[in-house]
Design brief:
By secondary structure, the chain is mainly alpha-helical. The chain has a single domain, classed as Glutaredoxin, CATH 3.40.30. It starts with 12 loop residues before the first helix and ends in a 19-residue tail after the last helix. It holds the Pfam family Rv2466c-like. It comes from Micromonospora peucetia. This is Disulfide bond formation protein DsbA.
Length: 172
């Protein structure tokens, strides 16, 4: 709808929450998140940010849209879909990219502040947590949402806007 320069970087909830006391179900969720985050980190490191911009949505479609939680199947399928080496899936079980992932996450937290999560969006040198949406806006509505977020980001006094989730998540 309008040209923008978009760049994905890894910000990992697993990293943010690794030393926090969490409810058991959320600890399990975070512990499982290391694998896909490691693969995304390695893809960006070895194939550039454009690879991450393709891989992240491919993983999201499988995990969130299709509800597939078998990461041993999801990760190689997403890598193959976007033309990345399927061997990158092995990184999910190694910690050699963890320091790079921690650095990327720390960079995002420096922009938006401690205690906030994902998504972190930086627009015109201003960063904020969100927007969190229950569905993906399209067309003119997407432009309005983007411009609204950009307008709020430009107001230094703005810190938060939140309401209860009323709709189920839809990634269609």
């Amino acid at each position: 709808m309008r040209p923008i320069s978009l760049r994905f970087e890894v910000m990992s909830l697993a990293v943010i929450n690794e030393h926090r006391d969490l409810e058991p179900w959320y600890r399990a969720f975070n512990d499982r998140a290391w694998g896909p985050a490691r693969v995304c980190t390695a893809a960006a490191a070895h194939h550039g940010p454009a690879a991450l911009a393709e891989l992240f949505p491919a993983l999201g479609r499988r995990i969130h849209d299709a509800g597939d939680k078998d990461f041993d199947a999801v990760i190689p399928a997403a890598l193959a879909e976007v033309g990345l080496p399927v061997e990158l899936a092995r990184v999910a079980y190694r910690d050699d990219v963890d320091e790079r992932m921690r650095t990327s996450t720390a960079r995002a937290q420096q922009l938006v502040g401690e205690g906030l999560g994902t998504p972190t969006i930086a627009v015109d040198d201003v960063a904020f947590f969100g927007p969190v949406l229950t569905s993906i806006p399209r067309g003119d509505e997407a432009v309005r949402v983007f411009e609204g977020a950009r307008l709020l980001a430009g107001c230094r006094a703005f810190t938060e806007l939140k309401r209860a989730r009323v709709d189920e998540l839809s990634f269609a």
